[in-house]
Write a structure and sequence with these properties.
By secondary structure, this protein is of the alpha/beta class. Helix content is about 40%, strand content about 20%. The chain has helices at about 20-40, 40-60, 60-70, 75-95, 130-145, 160-170, 185-195, 205-215, 240-255, 275-285, 305-315, 345-350, 365-370, 385-395, and strands at about 1-5, 10-15, 105, 110-115, 120-125, 145-150, 175-180, 195-205, 220-225, 230-235, 265-270, 320-325, 335-340, 355-360, 380-385, 400-405, 425, 435-445. The mean pLDDT is about 100. InterPro entries: Ald_DH/histidinol_DH, Ald_DH_C, Ald_DH_CS_CYS, Ald_DH_CS_GLU, Ald_DH_N, Aldehyde_DH_dom.
């Protein structure tokens, strides 16, 4: 498959797509590598993960530049993403020696629990954040003693392939981490149906996530799902309006809106609605959209022509209030766009592009009602100076990751995942490790 630079439409390279037999061969190799990796002394497994993290760090600029070309991410973001893989590997490198079981009091013996690794884990990664999403599955899965096969998105395989090379250079044993580029319905589907893949981690659209979940049900396969979002950025009249408006573009137009956490609905208390729009306008117009390799760029292109068409279709029945800039010429560019009269699809579906709807609300109860009026529940922000309200609204909004007076919500050491149809299970943070193990309870009788 040809790999395209979305900023120029140039062909970068081509990458072979694996057939089902090749996916099977990779799974078989991961299966063979599993017992030795599981039985590697915890300290040695930790050391290898740290070496892998250091290899990523040593290659950080190269990885970032690769992502700029393959995905159109701005260089600043791409450096953060490569650094995130390094950090998440370091974080879970602290885990192998701390994977503690319990000793539970019983009469007539000893009762202990073990956290056993599952075996082969299949990661299905989307095109929007190829590096971090790979790292979020990879690091805890390997730390817990599993082996991993990873399918990158067809559009963005290059950094995943480089990560596999770095793992090998760092001494991660053969078969412990393999990347299998291929089509979702072929390679991804094989991870779902192959009996030797004991867990699937899928990040992508809710529609495909549901198919993956149904497929995994056949074998009661372990599953983590990170799906779409339609997150609300709720601005109350008592908030620091200047700060809320200045940061709102970064909360939705980051990665050109191709972000499951994008705060794509800005809900503004009616009394400050017009003032907020006045403040938002320069922030949107001044956003630097252009060559993602340029240090000054804040937003790059969309991933493909097809995706740009899909994003544009959401404006068919909407009234645009503010339109930012975008370069002419080749590349899948789309200007940051603010809509004040959105159509039904724009209000309910995940656009996954730089389009945001600004919607007025009456009072706190109305804000919560609108925020929750969606099948999704991933993320969101609340802007207010009233700490009681901040806590009330945080508890009432049905979403897995909220931030108060901030537009960001992802940290590798805190749990991440969705309510409702935004997902199942949690990645990152201290507990994600256990999602890659099964608990075994053993009773040892001391009776003579
Ligand atoms: P998909 O859900 O189709 O793709 C995500 C991953 O799943 C890719 O690796 C894809 O492979 C793979 N896949 C596709 N079909 C199957 C299958 N039947 N079995 C197993 N794996 C499969 O997302 P799209 O790329 O089509 O994007 C469509 C929309 O989904 C976006 O516009 C956005 O709204 C949403 N999305 C949300 C994401 C999020 O982070 N929440 C991430 C990506 C998309 P392949 O690359 O070969 O198609």
């Amino acid at each position: 498959m040809q790999v395209i630079d979305p900023a120029t439409e140039d062909v970068i390279t081509d990458v072979p797509l694996a057939a089902e037999e090749e996916a099977d061969a990779a799974i078989a190799q991961a299966r063979r590598a599993f017992p030795a990796w599981r039985d590697t002394a915890p300290g040695d497994r930790a050391r290898l993960l740290r070496r892998f993290a250091e290899a990523v760090d040593g290659d950080l600029e190269n990885l970032a530049r690769l992502e700029v070309r393959n995905s159109g991410h701005t260089i600043g973001n791409a450096r953060w993403e490569a650094g995130n893989v390094r950090d998440v590997l370091h974080y879970y490198a602290g885990a192998p020696e701390r994977l503690l079981g319990q000793q539970i009091p019983v009469a007539g013996g000893l009762d202990v629990t073990f956290h056993e690794p599952l075996g082969v884990v299949g990661l299905i990664v989307p095109w929007n954040f190829p590096m971090p999403i790979a790292g979020w599955g990879l690091a805890p899965a390997l730390a817990a003693g599993n082996t991993v096969v990873l399918k990158p998105a067809e559009l963005t395989p290059l950094t995943a392939l480089r990560l596999a090379e770095l793992a090998r250079e760092a001494g991660i044993p053969e078969g412990v981490f393999q990347v299998v580029p291929g089509a979702g319905p072929v390679v991804g589907q094989r991870f779902v149906t192959h009996p030797d893949v004991r867990k699937v981690v899928f990040t992508g659209s809710t529609a495909v996530g549901k198919q993956v979940m149904a497929g995994c049900a056949e074998q009661v396969k372990r599953l983590t799902l990170e799906l779409g979002g339609k997150s609300a950025n709720i601005v109350f009249a008592d908030a620091d309006l200047e700060k809320a408006a200045a940061t709102a573009p970064y909360g939705v137009f980051g990665n050109a809106g191709q972000d499951c956490c994008a705060r794509s609905r800005i809900l503004v208390e009616r009394s400050v609605h017009d003032r907020f729009l006045e403040l938002l306008e320069p922030a949107v117009r001044n956003l630097v959209v252009g060559d993602p390799g340029d240090e000054k760029s804040e937003m790059g292109p969309l991933i493909s022509a097809e995706h740009r068409e899909k994003v544009a279709s959401y404006l068919d029945d909407a009234e645009v209030a503010i339109r930012g800039s975008a370069p002419d010429g080749p590349g899948f560019w789309f200007p940051p766009t603010v809509v004040t009269k959105p159509g039904e699809r724009l209000l309910t579906e995940e656009v996954f592009g730089p389009v945001v709807a600004v919607v007025p609300f009456r009072d706190e109860a109305d804000a919560v009602r609108i925020a929750n009026d969606t099948t999704f529940g991933l993320s969101g922000s609340i802007w207010t100076r009233d700490v009681g309200r901040a806590l009330r609204v945080s508890r009432a909004v049905e979403a897995g990751n909220l931030s108060v007076n901030s537009h960001s919500s992802v940290r590798y050491w805190t749990p991440f995942g969705g309510f409702k149809q935004s997902g199942l299970g949690r990645e990152l943070g201290p507990d994600a490790l256990h999602a890659f193990t099964d608990v075994k309870n053993v009773f040892i009788s001391t009776e003579e």
